[in-house]
Amino acid sequence: MGAGGGADSGRARRMPRAVREQQMLDAAVRTFGRLGYRAASMDEIAELAGVSKPLVYLYLHSKEDLFTAVIRREARALVDAVRAGVEPSLPADAQLWAGLRAFFVHTAEHPDAWAVLHRQARTHGEPFAAEVTAMREEIVAFVTALIGAAARQACHTADAPDLAARDVTGLAQALVGAAESLAGWANETGDVSAKEAAATLMNFAWAGLGNLMRGERWTPGR
Amino acid sequence: MGAGGGADSGRARRMPRAVREQQMLDAAVRTFGRLGYRAASMDEIAELAGVSKPLVYLYLHSKEDLFTAVIRREARALVDAVRAGVEPSLPADAQLWAGLRAFFVHTAEHPDAWAVLHRQARTHGEPFAAEVTAMREEIVAFVTALIGAAARQACHTADAPDLAARDVTGLAQALVGAAESLAGWANETGDVSAKEAAATLMNFAWAGLGNLMRGERWTPGR
Amino acid sequence: MGAGGGADSGRARRMPRAVREQQMLDAAVRTFGRLGYRAASMDEIAELAGVSKPLVYLYLHSKEDLFTAVIRREARALVDAVRAGVEPSLPADAQLWAGLRAFFVHTAEHPDAWAVLHRQARTHGEPFAAEVTAMREEIVAFVTALIGAAARQACHTADAPDLAARDVTGLAQALVGAAESLAGWANETGDVSAKEAAATLMNFAWAGLGNLMRGERWTPGR
Amino acid sequence: MGAGGGADSGRARRMPRAVREQQMLDAAVRTFGRLGYRAASMDEIAELAGVSKPLVYLYLHSKEDLFTAVIRREARALVDAVRAGVEPSLPADAQLWAGLRAFFVHTAEHPDAWAVLHRQARTHGEPFAAEVTAMREEIVAFVTALIGAAARQACHTADAPDLAARDVTGLAQALVGAAESLAGWANETGDVSAKEAAATLMNFAWAGLGNLMRGERWTPGR
DNA sequence: GATGAATGAGGGTTCATTCAT
DNA sequence: AATGAATGAACCCTCATTCAT
């Protein structure tokens, strides 16, 4: 009786490996996300996961491997969330909208994971940055495809030939960057919901896209 | 007199404090920018600066203080560069264009400083992030003002009633975020010049602004 | 019945204890011999033995106990091999020759065991070294006896008065040390067979013995 | 006054680097020699040297480097001691005798150093063993040269052509091995002085050498 | 008879920081 | 103005060893 006298409250011992691994990854996401790769200590992660340090090493081998596992899991989760948010049967602009919303919702709900992907992973050497770059490119490719579809839809025809590949990539790059910035803004100022941020961005994106497609480019000289 | 009494050949000794400090800050920018706050060691910085470690501590007190000094100096330099790039007598769109160009030129010319501001500072605890947030807000405010002016200019009148302050700020926020992302893109892929990156973004921004002013907003329901 | 009810394919399970123990000792000999006492890990030994670590502890109690068991088994094997190599009915010099040969053959055939006895055991604390010292003394005593017999045989009589016990022991000590050194040499350079090594040493020993018996000692003063 | 009240008793602080390095090497020799490479801890060495661990790393970089430095210093010391012990103007047999004596005296006076060279260094990987092998080969070459000179001296002529190179090498190898064994014997049993051990070995060696030179080899068949 | 799960303790290494000169 | 000498604290990682099943 007294403290800890409940049924299975307190810290559970003897769990199957798969479960423990997820707990460790959860703790690692939180620690890496808030402190950064170098500042996060394995002691801290182990303690937060409720296990001893050797167990973390037994399952995840090293700090680098742990970080890589974190990046992989969270990158996959984000991409899946965006993918799951779009309904392929809808028109392209609605898909783009849904994808953006899913992106904002997911990053808002998992701020530590987002910090790991956005801030930490790119900061600590090639191997980690490569993982995030892969994810980012997957998203950029997805957005690029949606833009292409939207372009065809908007023109009612398939003749939108002057959309140079680099323009589209630049657009997508700027779009993702703007999304990242807005995600931060939305997370910091509580009064802007994920939905509003997505709407603002969509507004922005749609116009840029339309202009690009109509050949109406802003040029310095004019 | 005595040993070393020649001209100033070899490594210069006995320099005025202000000069030494700038050398230390230069070394710190490079080291922090390339390695990150935690991975950068005071030994490395001191060696790169050509001084002994105690001197670094004598002048800059601690690693945190040194990092803060770096952030302040480089944030000021970036803001000044953007401000110096605009000519207040020009029309607002030309000012926005010039500011963007100055931003890209400066970040391209000082990649380590940009890395410190964009990647490292926000990654390592509140005090540092606050410094960068202040700079970012200064730029956002600047851009917000330019956008407001451009809006009024485009309408030839001051009656643009549906441009809510929050919309403008959101637009500026997205614009700055997109600029940061494109700056990274431009720094990584050598084939996109600062000018092209600025043009792409301006193109994007101008369209978003125009749409906003015409009240042509994309809405989910449609 | 049930899973694993087939013949004895795959890794054999449920073996009698004595067999399992020998497998563990085999693995330990190899691991200790190649890596040394401290560098060898119980994990490695257990894996090489094809059993789980707790089983090793169940049977052999601790790393120290395991090492001791290894030393005992291999010391016994070496002494037995040398003893088995001599034919008591032969003349003493032939016995000495046969013993040397057996020594070289055995160490060449069990290099890991020899490494444990010669290099590792004496390196890690008194308790282990004592085991090996005991074995060494057994061999030295054996050699001492053979030398004594050979001396008597060479003189055709038992009157070899100037062969002090200490001289004989010193000779045996040097002989065994030389044998150990040559065993290492033979193991390292593949081109010297056990037989040649033994012949070289026998050659050496016989002359020393002869000199000793003839009272022809080399003395510093001359 | 009282404890520590003396002039410069107690632990001296602020010493020049070269002195501190030697103190560290002294402590390392003792620790490595008694405990072995793996069992010796840098903490222990630092404490024995009277400094903090970081200083050991500052000066000697790593445990491996420290061990290498120890091996080099002690190998050099041993070779120098042997070399210094011989008087080149004496006859060859006297030189051989003097060298052996110097060897025994030095190893008896520096048992930890001898343990490092003889037992530890060969046990822990190629890089270390190579250092000792180099020293050993230097000694073997020295002995080989002396043997050659002694052979010519003993025959009064230079015609000792049937001394095959391998025989000489084997002889030297066995000689060094026997010397090592006798050194251990002498160290363990206090009643055998270094001089006696050297005499026993010299006796042994001289006879083997003589036999070899006279072509009187012991052969199994006879 | 046999094992997956788990840990206390300790080792090598590095780093920010400070004296004494 | 400037530095060689020195360290407390912390971090990553490994290992011998033990439960509970």
Rg of chain A, rounded, reads: 21 Å
Q: What would you call the structural class of chain A?
A: mainly alpha
Multimeric status of the protein: homotetramer
Query: What is the tally of beta strands of chain A?
Result: 0
- How many strands, what sense, and barrel or not for the largest sheet of chain A? none
| Count of helix runs of chain A | 9
Biggest interface: A-B, 49 and 48 residues
Mean pLDDT of chain A: 81
Helix content of chain A: over 70%
How large a portion of the residues of chain A is in β-strands, by DSSP E?
A: under 5%
Order of helical and strand elements of chain A: HHHHHHHHH
Terminus-to-terminus distance of chain A: 81 Å
Task: Give unreliable regions of chain A as ranges.
Answer: 1-10
Shape type of chain A: elongated
What does this structure look like?
Four copies of one chain form a homotetramer. By secondary structure, chain A is mainly α. Chain A contains nine helices and no strands. Chain A has helices spanning 17-35, 42-49, 53-60, 63-85, 92-109, 111-120, 126-155, 165-188, 194-214. Chain A is elongated, with a radius of gyration of 21 Å. Chain A starts with 16 loop residues before the first helix and ends in an 8-residue tail after the last helix. In chain A, helix 1 (17-35) crosses helix 2 and helix 7 crosses helix 8 (165-188). Chain A binds a DNA duplex (21 and 21 nucleotides) through residues 13-17, 20, 41-43, 51-55, 57-58, 62-63.
